[in-house]
Amino acid sequence: MKFTTTLSVTMAIAVASATPFRGAGRPFVSKAAAPPGAPVTTKAGEFSPAGPDDFRGPCPMMNTLANHGFLPHNGRNITRETAIRALGQGINFDPALAGLMWDQAIFINPEPNATFFTLDMLNVHNVLEHDASLSRQDAKFGNNHVFDPMIFAQSAMYFTDKVMTPAHIANAKVQRQLTSKATNPEYRFTDSIENFSLGEIAAPFLVFGDIKARTVDRDTVISFITNEKLPDGFKPQATPVTLQQVGDMVVACKNATNLFTKDAGAAPAPGFPANHKRSVTGFGHGMVF
Ligand code: HEM
Ligand SMILES: [Mg+2]
């Protein structure tokens, strides 16, 4: 798996060079349910779910920031300045990081020299949105941007401890890739998407976790992705989250997707010497060379 700093440091924005957007018609528009009479606008910080005319997309955090009014509640007109302010006020992302993330997403608006995007623009398949999401179905099977409880339940099965490490989320991600590869004839997962995805799985640690220890509380992650809501009493990181921290967390998540183990410390089977080698050809099952 390849990792390039520039791309991987963005949360989910690594495909700027992958697939040029050509204005593939009106993207999907999410119509997340809101209780009758729910307000359609909200003050920064207050939670209010999306109403029928509000745009939402495939990113649980961008939706969350809109639900809390850090981004425009209607999910429209996300300018660079708006994104920097929202990611700063909502989750204490460094302005340089937030600005870079917006820069690498703005091409999603097909207008020349666009100065904003809307959350539903993120829905266009194989531009920023991709297959094997943790909490959304592949576009091939239907809606690619609204939270899907069945898909997310499959992912959350791999969150096997209350305190999550990169291994838990990486296992969930690899499982989603394998499921998609096995069942979706149009499955697509390029190098760029890999980088994009590593940023996504690193993100919950950076927002809700102990960045140094590389841990995050499982219930918080599940609740955030399910409800697109910040936890009650949420306090952002004490110091702004930086590009460097994103890069480090992405590397940790990338390493955690590795399916190999190290031999060191493994007890040999009875009767076999320690550190015996297997046949390199694969035809020597059980034979020691
Ligand atoms: C300008 C800022 C951002 C943009 C444009 C953006 C865009 C996207 C897009 C297009 C996806 C969908 C990819 C897919 O198909 O799964 C996505 C997924 C995701 N994003 Fe963001 N994102 C941004 C910031 C963030 C931040 C700050 C977080 C922090 C928690 C975050 C967390 C996630 C997660 C966890 C996913 C994966 C969801 C899943 O696999 O079901 N994003 N983002
Ligand atoms: Mg997706």
UniProtKB/TrEMBL annotation:
Annotated signal sequence is: 1-18
Chain residue ranges for the region called Disordered: 32-53
- Extract the PANTHER family matched here: HEME HALOPEROXIDASE FAMILY PROFILE DOMAIN-CONTAINING PROTEIN (PTHR33577:SF7), STERIGMATOCYSTIN BIOSYNTHESIS PEROXIDASE STCC-RELATED (PTHR33577)
Give the organism the record lists. Answer: Hymenoscyphus albidus
Q: Which family does it belong to?
A: Belongs to the chloroperoxidase family.
Q: So which cofactors does this thing need? A: heme b
Gene3D superfamilies cross-referenced by the UniProt entry: Chloroperoxidase-like
Q: Does the keyword Nucleotide-binding apply?
A: no
* Domain Heme haloperoxidase family profile span(s) in chain numbering: 43-248
Q: What is this protein called?
A: Heme haloperoxidase family profile domain-containing protein
Alphabetic keyword roster: Heme, Iron, Metal-binding, Oxidoreductase, Peroxidase, Signal
Under Pfam families, the record lists: Peroxidase_2
Tell me yes or no: is tRNA processing among this UniProt entry's keywords. Answer: no
For this UniProt entry, the molecular function terms from Gene Ontology, in alphabetical order, are: metal ion binding; peroxidase activity
